[in-house]
Amino acid sequence: MNMLGTTQFLMIEEICAEGAYLDGKEHGDVFLPLKELPDHLEAGDNVEVFVYSDNQGHPCATTQKPLAQLGEFALLRAKQINKVGAFLDLGISKDVLAPYNEQKPKMREGYSYLVKLYLDNASKRLCASSNLGKFVNKTPAQYKKFEQVELIVAAKTDLGYKVIVNEQHFGMVFFNTVFKRMYIGQRMTGYIKQVHEDDKIDVLLEKPGMDKISDLGEQILKKLEENNGFLPLGDKSDPELIKKTFSTSKANFKKAIGGLFKQEKIQIEATSISLLKNKK
Q: Ranges for the Conserved virulence factor B first S1 domain (predicted)?
């Protein structure tokens, strides 16, 4: 079983002046520096560690928590560029290499990139790749309309935001459906709008239908209660102000406050809404 690039519970076999040797099964001994060994542990105890390879290819361990593990996507910053590639900050003392042939686009020092961590077959070391097309769209896109999915923002395009759906497929969130701030590496929940015949996927950020309006209505009531029963937003308010406050469209906002008005919970004016007394 491969353990490189993953977090494991390993048994302490021996403690010496330099550190501890852990039982890595078929990988042999795994070295953990003494400064990272918890004081209360001794030989025979298990310790939770992240396993990686040192510069000589020997398995080592750290109790530090990495920003990502083998098989995961993460936004990592390029700390150094040299003749073999870019070294990215993994959140531990050991950086992870993104070889030049795995860089798309070519990386620059100080910039952050969405990458996937993989195990290089030749060196048997944990590496990073920003050539995300190698890892997604490998299976048919079988999603139901309005199915809830997990998204990772991968890129900004002329049409909208390219996202990774359930870490398996590329999808697109078009600009005219975006009502919240989005940035590369961001994780969020989305909903399948449509899967085309060529497996291209359109994604929505807001829950479709009346469930979304109901949820938005609850958010509006909560905001009113936090602001002494008054908000300077109404039927005629600027759509950008509504977007900034509730991360939604003006159309959805009007539907939500209309529903609250019918329930006799709020009063609506052109540029404001207020809670009706005794109707909270």
A: 4-64
Q: Record the tokens describing residue 38, joined without a space.
A: 């918890």
Give the homologous superfamily in CATH for domain 73-133: Nucleic acid-binding proteins (2.40.50.140)
Which CATH fold topology does 7-62 show?
OB fold (Dihydrolipoamide Acetyltransferase, E2P) (2.40.50)
List of E strands, the chain: 7-15, 19-23, 29-33, 46-53, 59-62, 73-82, 85-88, 96-99, 112-119, 126-129, 148-156, 160-165, 169-174, 187-195, 201-204, 230-231, 266-268, 273-275
> What fold, for 148-204?
OB fold (Dihydrolipoamide Acetyltransferase, E2P) (2.40.50)
Round to whole Å and give the CA distance between 216 and 89: 39
**pTM attached to this predicted model:** 0.80
Question: Which CATH architecture best describes the domain 210-275?
Answer: Orthogonal Bundle (1.10)
Helix (H, G, I), strand (E, B) or coil at 225: helix
CB 96 within 8 A of CB 76: yes
Neighbours of 229 (CB within 10 A): 16
Q: What is the pLDDT of residues 192-228, one digit of tens each?
A: 999 998 999 999 998 776 566 788 899 999 999 999 9
d(CA 44, CA 10): 10
Q: Where are the domains of the chain?
A: 7-62, 73-133, 148-204, 210-275
Asked if 48 and 7 count as a contact pair (C-beta separation under 8 A), the reply is yes
